[in-house]
Amino acid sequence: MNEQQKKNTSKFLSYVLRHHPELIDLNLDENGWANVSELISKSANNSQGFTFEELDEIVQTNNKRRFIFNEDKTRIRANQGHSIAIDLALTPQEPPEFLYHGTAQTNIQSILEKGIEKRSRQHVHLSQDRETATNVGMRHGKPFVLTIKTKMMFDDGVQFYLSDNNVWLTDFVDAKYISK
After folding, report:
1. CATH of region 3-78
2. Where does the chain cross the membrane (predicted)?
3. Which of 34, 40, 101, 164 has its CA 20 to 30 A from that of 67?
4. Per-residue pLDDT tens over the stretch 55-86
5. Of 132, 145, 69, which is closest to residue 102 (Cα–Cα)?
6. Coil, strand, or helix at residue 18?
7. Hey, where are the domains in the chain?
8. Which of 173, 118, 166, 119 lies closest to 146, judged by CA?
9. What is the pTM of this model?
């Protein structure tokens, strides 16, 4: 599988495991886990075929660590970013003093007025470093990185979670906790 095929398969997996499992009639459990054999079989029926070895390579080499297997590699799920209702079974954790949110410059005014909303996703995503946040922001236009006062939020009772691929998650970031 060449790099372009890996990229295309990764995008397909993100789409199916995070947003539209019904595209291939894939069953996800309440925690977002899919049976690997079923995923491979139903993907092949949808012209997106890949082998277990190719899937394993994508899981192991994806730079954003978007996917995870269970211990015996019989089930797979996306680590975060779902727009479908699932329970990732994450435990609330205390965040560092500051986290970062990457966005496009065109969104700054709205965010500073309304805060950061999860919109169609289950959570707002925050990064541990500016570089990652910048890369996220670049996907949406000219990037801009906001600093989020996460320790202050936590002290005010806001819950945070850390996904398996080290993305911090919360439900909403009020504008009062955001600085440019």
Report:
1. 1.10.10.970
2. none
3. 101
4. 999 999 988 889 999 999 999 999 988 999 99
5. 145
6. helix
7. 3-78, 99-179
8. 173
9. 0.78
